[in-house]
Amino acid sequence: MPFNTKLTQALGIKIPVVQGGMQWVGYAELASAVSNAGGLGILTALTQPTPEDLRKEIRKCKTMTSKPFGVNITLLPSLNAPDYGAYAQVAIDEGIKVVETAGNSPGPVIQKLKAVGTIILHKCTTIRHAESAVKLGVDFLSIDGFECAGHVGETDITNFILLSRARQSLKVPFIASGGFADGQGLAAALSLGAEGINMGTRFMCTVEAPIHLNIKESIVKASETDTQLVLRRWKNTTRLFKNRVTAQAVKVEQESTTGKFEEIAPYVSGQRGRQVFINGDPDFGVWTAGQVIGLIHDIPTCETLCKRIEKEAEETINRSAALVVPSSKL
Description:
40% of the residues lie in helices and 15% in strands. By secondary structure, it is α/β, with parallel strands linked by helices. α3 packs parallel to α4.
């Protein structure tokens, strides 16, 4: 049964599940598969080397699905920052109706997108940042708990608290991100006030995800303890799949006497991480994964996964509703 939440209404999707924007993963093959399965697929803008390459990927995705899909634009600190405005303009030119934003100082990009009526879904790891995003006019917030993959923030607040704080404090609808893999999680998020969920790591472990099978199998074999936090020393804490390279990175981080980022930089190279998804060696470089890896036990198609999540969520909600017994009027 299709869900009816503010997210499904606004985006025109069947189930309130968003595929998070993931570097080197968010290509047309995955985004179209998620959208065809009833969720919202997301292309990752910065996976494309130039704005024109993003245009080509958007057009490719349009040939693979007639359903809505979005684009992720993540703004990160950089000495040579990409032309975020140009990526946003391509999304506008190509008629993209939904953009997921994240990162630092997103105001100019959000303003540009909002000027043409784009729906903005902004990812935050704290309520303070969420409140700032509300002032920028975002339509939805993606509340990212400490369980998540990638940039976890510096406050270490898990979703059970963070989502309830969002429900208490925010005037803009939100979805839950970090730690979600199944319909029970979707039902829980809805119960806590969310309008849907965002899944990244779970969608990495699907047939259509454009990464090496060995990496998907590594996720299936892993437990919830097989992630590693790195870069906390530099206030850029990131959750990665635990492997030989993260162990080396942590050793440098803990033992460095200078605290210079240059010492750890070779170990956390994004290019080495990209090669992991191509060559299938999980120890070749660092790559992001959330604690949810402990809940992932198979490699289904996106269609099978989304149907299963929909069924599990409906059953869970119905089972919870049946726990409430009308009191006798006698």
